[in-house]
Amino acid sequence: MLTLDLNDARPLHEQVAGAIRRAIGEGSYTQGDRLPSARDLAEALGINSNTVLRALRELREEGLLEFRRGRGVSVARQADGRALIRERARALLEEAGRYGYRAEDVIAILKEFP
What we know:
Layout: H1 12-25, H2 38-45, H3 49-61, E1 65-68, E2 72-75, H4 81-98, H5 103-110
Antiparallel strand pairs: 1-2
Helix pairs in contact: 1-3, 1-4, 2-3
Pfam families: GntR (PF00392)
InterPro entries: Tscrpt_reg_HTH_GntR, WH-like_DNA-bd_sf, WH_DNA-bd_sf
Protein name: GntR family transcriptional regulator
């Protein structure tokens, strides 16, 4: 199930879009799978359904989701690996910032890996 970080400074619709993007990238949803309704997602996340709809529209514009009348929202294609890495990198940088690290510090840490 999708989760949101209430300490995240990003707008809720961006967090929802990122969570769905991650779920698709990690294989929880594959091409052709139907997503739960916006109302069900909003209820599960404890947010307004308009916020979820905004996230879903954003993902439709990216070509990741498709809307079909009477059939709901389904995955149009698998998430681009680069998009998934960007989403995770953004989350890493935000977490690092909470501990006082800058992007340059995170890059230095990453360079320590083989």
